Amino acid sequence: MTSIEKHQSPVHTGTGEGLPERFDDPGLPPHEPRRGDLDPAADKTSERIVLALFGLSTLGTIGFLVAYFALPTGQDAATIQRSNMALGLALACALLGIGAAAIHWAKSIMNNHERVEDRHSVASSPEVREAAVANLVAGAQDSGISRRGLLKSALVGSLALFPLTIVVPLVGEVGENWDVASFKRTLWRKGLRLTTDPSGRPIKAADVTVGSIWHVIPEGLEEAPHPLDEKAKAVVIVMRLDQADLVEAPERRDWSHEGIVAYSKICTHVGCPVALYEKDSHHLLCPCHQSTFDVADGCRVVFGPAKRPLPQLPITVDDEGYLVAQSDFTEPIGPSFWDRLR
C-alpha cells in the first residue's frame, strides 16, 4: 500500500461507513469574566459611560428643538442647508446616544453568563408561561435597573424626550396652509415670458433649434413670495421638433409654436426632475426610476412606473418673438395627491 493509500484509508467512503453515529456535545466554553465583574471601579466606569451616552441623547433632543425654533429654513439654499445640518446632527446624537447606551449597558453591565435552552414544544403550557415571566424578572434583575436608580432615570428621561423630535415638527405644521388648491396652480399665466434657468433670460423662438433642450422658469420668479417653492412647481422643459414628427391632439394643436413644445419638468411618478433628452427617439427620461416619455406624442409614458403623461404648458410668441405662456397648466403637475381627479 502506498503512502497516499495509507493516508486515504480512514473511512471516507461514499457510504459514510466508519463515521460515528453521533458527535459528543462540546458544551460551552469556559466563562470569561469581564473587568467590571472583577473590579468595582471598572463597573462604575461602565455605568458612567452609559450615563454619558444617555446624557448625549438628551442633549441631542434639546439641540434639535433649539435648532428647529432658532434656525428657520428661509428660502435661500444657505439657510436651508444650515437648518438641515443642525437638525440632522442633533437627531443623530439623540438616536445614537440611546442606541450606544443600550448596547454598552448590555455588554458591560448586564449579566453575560451563557445559557442553554433545550428545545421544547411550540405550544406554551402554563408552566412555560410562568418560566417566561420568571426569565423576564431575572433579566430585569440582571440588568441592574432596580439597584441603579440613576441609570433608570437617564433611560426614562432620554426615551421620554426623544419623541419630541417627531412631535414638535408635526405640531409646528398645524398652523400652516393646507389649501391643496395651491398644488393645482403654478406661477404661469397668460403672456408670461419663458426664461432660462437659472439666469432668467427671455427666450426667443428663433433661438430654439431642432433637437435642443431648454430648462425654463417663469419670468419674475425671484420676485415671488416663496421663489423656491414656486420654482419646484413651475420648472419647464422646452424642445423643438420637426413639425412632421409631432403627434398632437386636436384640442392641443395651438399649444405649440412651429414645433416648439413645453412640458412640466416634474415627473408624474414621484416628482423627480425629468432632464435627459434623446433627440433621435424624442424620449425624455427620468433619472430616478427610468420613467420614459415620448415628447413627439404628448409626452405619453412609454416605459417605467409613471402612469400619466407630463402636463403640457400651452405656449405662443409675443410681438417681439419671445416665447410666452398662453395660460397656466390645465392640470396639476407632478405626482398624485389626495385631491386631484387623476
What would your notes on this structure say?
By secondary structure, the protein is an alpha+beta fold. The chain has two domains: 35-115 and 127-172; 182-325, Rieske Iron-sulfur Protein (3-layer Sandwich), CATH 2.102.10. Helix content is 35%, strand content 11%. The chain is built from eight helices and ten strands. The protein has helices at residues 3-8, 35-38, 40-70, 77-108, 126-143, 149-161, 164-172, 227-234, and strands at 194-196, 213-218, 236-240, 260-264, 276-278, 283-285, 292-294, 300-303, 315-317, 323-325. The strands form three sheets. The protein has a four-stranded antiparallel β-sheet. It has a four-stranded antiparallel β-sheet with strand order 5-6-7-8, with no helix packed on it. Strand 9 (315-317) and strand 10 form a beta hairpin. The chain is elongated, with a radius of gyration of 34 Å. The model is unreliable at 1-14 (pLDDT under 50).
Q: Summed up, what is this model?
A:
This protein is of the alpha+beta class and 342 residues long.
**What does the average pLDDT come to?**
85
Please tell me how large the radius of gyration is: 34 Å
Which residues sit in consecutive blocks of at least 5 with pLDDT less than 50? 1-14
Tally of domains: 2
Q: What fraction, in percent, of the residue positions are helical?
A: 25-40%
